[in-house]
Amino acid sequence: MNDPDRTLIETTRTHRDRLASALSFGALDRRRPVNTNLRRFVGSVVLAAVAGVGCLTFSFVVHLLDDRREDQALAAFRAALSANPIQPTDQMPEDPLTGFLEDPASEDLIDPQTGFVVDRETGLARDPEGNTIDPRIDWYLDPASGYYTDPASGVTIDPRTLQVVEEDR
What we know:
Layout: H1 4-25, H2 28-31, H3 38-82, E1 101-102, E2 109-110, E3 117-118, E4 125-126, E5 132-134, E6 139-141, E7 148-149, E8 156-158, E9 163-165
Antiparallel strand pairs: 1-2, 2-3, 4-5, 5-6, 6-7, 7-8, 8-9
């Protein structure tokens, strides 16, 4: 059980300590600072600002890299359009109507840049994977939309507007 004498001694000791603290340090309300949470608020604002700047920087860098990739694809498209094909030889003369090389043995038209057989009617070639290729520039062609896709970067371009076509993700 609880010893009443011990309780009285502890209570007296606590009162004496409180009186001594009040005499030395002042009243109780002066000894306890008011907790205004100002430090927490300022810390939260600083943390939110740092996180916001980090997200903004990440977004900016990703946008810059996407723009660079698209600019490189457009430059490659323009360079491929202006590239000159391989010169014809006696074994593979140039077809005067199309500008492709003509194989006299098989009577096939051969793309001088890729070596793929070109369809005489459409002027398009197929690679071993079955993709339709425009042999003038060696880019994939989507016959349904008319868009060209760079095989190296995967960027799709509308050749009429020379604008990058955003992919559905």
